[in-house]
Amino acid sequence: MNAKFDELIGSFVDNEIGLCEHFLTKTLAKLLQQHLQELDNENRMLPAGIGNDIIKDPLQKKRGDRIFWLDKKTKNINELAFLDQIENFIEYLNKTCYTGINAYEFHYALYDAGTFYKRHRDQFKNNQDRKYTLISYLNDDWKDTDGGELIIYQAGKAGKILPTMQKAVFFRSSELEHEVSVSPRPRMSISGWLKSN
Ligand code: OGA
Ligand code: NI
């Protein structure tokens, strides 16, 4: 497990964008994908905030994903295994990089076909608790012609990351602007933030 954490942290230290191709095992990624689909079937994936109730015109929306917050009180063993891995990562990060992370929040995200998340930063102006963003992807066979990429803007350049199964991306929430390009098919992930206050 530490080798995966080293891969994520090492690439973050080198390029500000941490990447680990196989952060989640294939089995866990598949089981989490199934759980997300079950939640959707039960109508528990709900539109994410940012004024969606005020702006009715979908083209003006900032984001079109539907989300479900993970919770340690869950009885789903796969969700618990995921949160366990996150806690181990935080412990490792704090030990190796003195980051002082003392909280976290994660949600499943489902982008229906045709939805996106416009260019943004993840830290709120009135609350700086979110220090690092960590996103894990749950999509089989994503092709580079599919769209729905994570686009990260860095020093005037836009880098594209495909949301493929098992992959994790890690970056500083206050710094990098990013967006999700229009997804031509359902796009599944777990987005989260490591926090300190
Ligand atoms: C977010 C976000 C990007 C992605 O949830 O804030 O930017 O690739 N997600 O899912
Ligand atoms: Ni974001």
- Report the oligomer: single chain
What are the distinct ligands in this entry? N-oxalylglycine, nickel (II) ion
Shape: globular
End-to-end distance, in Å? 27 Å
Class derived from helix and strand content: alpha+beta
What is the H/E string? Answer: HEHEEHEEEEEEEE
**The CATH topology, please?**
Jelly Rolls
Q: For the residues shown, what is the average pLDDT?
A: 93
Q: Name the CATH homologous superfamily.
A: q2cbj1_9rhob like domain
- Which band does the percent of strand residues land in? 25-35%
The CATH architecture term is Sandwich
Number of self-contained structural domains: 1
Tell how many strands the DSSP assignment holds: 11
Order of strands across the main sheet: 1-9-6-11-4-3-2
- Report the sheet with the most strands, covering strand number, pairing sense and barrel closure: 7 strands, antiparallel
Just give the CATH class.
Mainly Beta
- Report the uncertain regions: none
